[in-house]
Amino acid sequence: VTENSAVLLSGFYDTTEGNVRNIGPSGGTNDATNYGGRISYYADLTDRLAVKASIAYEENQRGLRGAIPDGELFPTTEQLIDLVIDNDLNPFIPSGFINSDLSTFFPEQNDTVSIDADESSNANQLISILRLDYDFGPFSLISVNGYAKSERFFLNDDDSSEFASITSEGSARNQFGSTELRLQSNGDNRLDWVAGIFGSLSRNDSQFSSVATELLRQSTFIPAPASLFIEPADLALFPDNQLFIINAPPGTVYQS
Questions:
Q1: pTM to 2 decimals?
Q2: 72 near 161, Cβ under 8 Å?
Q3: How confident is the model over 170-202, as pLDDT tens digits?
Q4: Which of 16, 121, 174, 254 fits as disulfide partner to 72, beta carbons 3.0 to 4.6 Å?
């Protein structure tokens, strides 16, 4: 800008349409957009006083998480019946629910999901720094001050299926500020010294909510380590709304 001052500007922008498509009711892809920039200012205001200041901002926007379903994990048919009879069950959401609109799972197909709820995420961050240097000759007085703020908001279809079971949303807001004031010797002396004080303050606010629909409360989910081939006759052993997998086509092999 002048002989004793300068300004630096930089920025970036990036976007992608994503590689995973949602064929479920909410539609969308795992698209993403990122952009941001920074402005910095440097100046020697006098022969003794110098200033450095910068501020930067970045934002990230995302669509679907893009988690490809890989099928369900279940025990053997006999173990499954015993679990239901003994009522020894815990609510459990495995990775990759059954999607009746999908005929195959990962890795046979790797670009399609079927979910009913909207998914999105937005995050941004602001960082600012101010530094002042005053030269007294034998020593300098330096002040460094910083402030950072970040925010994140998200919506998720936690069951990763086309069934209205579990959704969640949340936000996180963080703020941090710090200041440093120090005296330090100048030059290459036999004895160099530094003395100063430092202080910081932070604040974190987070909110999260998860909603389980009536379909989830009326269904039974099976936590299990092995795969199961479900015969159509086996499904008749379970009343409607007692076993979640009755929503899937009979005779399907579910495996990870």
A1: 0.70
A2: no
A3: 999 999 999 999 999 997 778 899 999 999 999
A4: 254
